[in-house]
Amino acid sequence: MSEPTEQNKNEGTGPEDAGESSDEERPRKPRKRFEIDIFRAWCKSCGICAAFCPAHCIAFDEEGAPVVTDEDACMGCGWCEIHCPDFAISVRPRKPKIVQDED
Ligand code: SF4
Ligand code: SF4
Prior knowledge:
Distance between the termini: 75 Å
Shape: extended
Bound molecules: iron/sulfur cluster
Order of helices and strands: HEHEEHE
Structural class: alpha+beta
Strand order of the largest sheet: 1-4
CATH topology of the domain at 49-92: Alpha-Beta Plaits
CATH architecture of the domain at 49-92: 2-Layer Sandwich
Helix content: 10-25%
Largest sheet: 2 strands, antiparallel
Oligomer: single chain
């Protein structure tokens, strides 16, 4: 068997050769959005949700209570919901808005 040349070393390894299209050509799916609800009556402001949210969606207000500051950044991982000791936070997919015709 002969040694691979520079040309045949690179053949058949790209996405084009595997029948895949590049990222630029592929249509992107719209990103899923989520809504976050914090039930103040149950929350004891422990701060776990704000401290560990990987997307930094939750911060503290001046009283030290958690507030949703960037709901659009939420990736729906559910970390806050699973780890909240008081079941005081809920994350669910945002419902699409229904736009009525103005006729
Ligand atoms: S983890 Fe739960 S109890 Fe703690 S601050 Fe967040 S919502 Fe409140
Ligand atoms: S679901 Fe994940 S990304 Fe969304 S607020 Fe909770 S921890 Fe943050």
